[in-house]
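Hey Z.,

So I finally got round to the pyridoxal-5'-phosphate thing we talked about over coffee. Here's the setup:
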Amino acid sequence: MSKQHMASSSELYQRACALLPGGVSSPVRAYGAVGGEPPVMVRGEGAYIYDADGRQYLDFVQSWGPLVLGHAYPDVVQAIIEQARLGTTFGAPCEGEVTLAETVHELTGIESLRFVSSGTEATMSAIRLARGATGRDKVLKFAGCYHGHADHLLVSAGSGLVTFGEPSSAGVPKAFTECTLVLPLDDEAALCQLFAEQGHEIAAVIIEPIPANNGLLVQRPEFLKTLRRLTRESGTVLIFDEVISGFRIAPGGAAEQLGIEPDMVCYGKIVGGGLPVGMFGGKRALMNHLAPLGPVYQAGTLSGNPLAMAAGQATLQALRSLGGWDRLEQLGQHLERLVGPLLAARGYSLVRQGSLFWMNLQAGEPPRCAECIHEDSAARYRPIFHSLLAEGIALAPSAYEVGFLSLAHTEAQIDHFAEALGRALARVPAV
Ligand SMILES: Cc1ncc(COP(=O)(O)O)c(C=O)c1O
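And the result:
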């Protein structure tokens, strides 16, 4: 079955480090936060991935979300092969983008949308569009929400108070983030005050409706409803960044689950079925500001790429025909039933939304804002992570990242995970 690889995982990683900074193409893949060397993968099938040494891992990362059907799902592979035979890119309108747009519209109700090649491009373009359409410059984001790596969104917050964007990456000029405001999540009072003072100057608010990039910071619906009300009253474009939650939480994403209609949405990950796709969309009147219809420029050589469209279409079709959303919820409930008590016995807790889960390694109520996560969480996570990895179970190499279930996972695999987690938890102190 598995192809023989001449180079070991460790050899490949050393070669990677010689040419790729940190040995990776994206920093979250490095093991800086947990220590050690990441295994180099050569193959994935269903819920499993395999490294160059032939080691098998039960994978709860699933490429950080896109693989809702698991690795190398046969229909997706077939769709990619068939499209590859017909051509991989045309630089002209293609059938695949029309069919995928129609499927997205049917599932989500989004009136008008544009495909891009990553979540970063989706959020960056949505914000440009909101600024172009409103004629305003300021943008509000929330501490702990990640929206990709566009300069003006790489901003962290001081806790408690609204901060004017301090870049959180070197190489981002202060001037680029001066129009980015940051507030803590879960704080209606701060939100109301900001909108009372500056609402009419704010082009857009961008938020992950289910913040899943700094732990899983499930928001109170009232907070999100207040945000919807204030943005509507001030003519501010409300953007839901559903790059993780889109097509995972429900056919219409978190917006559908919450019953809140944003003005725009950004999708990524699942919509590309494991190939590089992002998408942003919303009301037609707003989207018509985009070139070629309107003055807001946005473009991409490989946008709407036929291969990626085929993978996305096959993924959404399978999700639909398998009743994917109910099944993901079932699997999530199973995991919660087993893992919740294990964590609770140590004073910790499991946070779960559908097929997303996060181990909250601190006592008390699960946090709802980034500032509420105790810094000891990272040290507690390390031995758990390595104990699981040694048993062939792959979680994200960071205490702040969520786990992903896919339709390829089974109850038996989740049982296996829970047993291994029980052994791993014995290695960390209870709180
Ligand atoms: C909520 C959210 N928005 C945007 C992005 C950026 O997407 P990409 O990595 O495809 O650029 C991510 C990536 O994880 C994300 O989680």
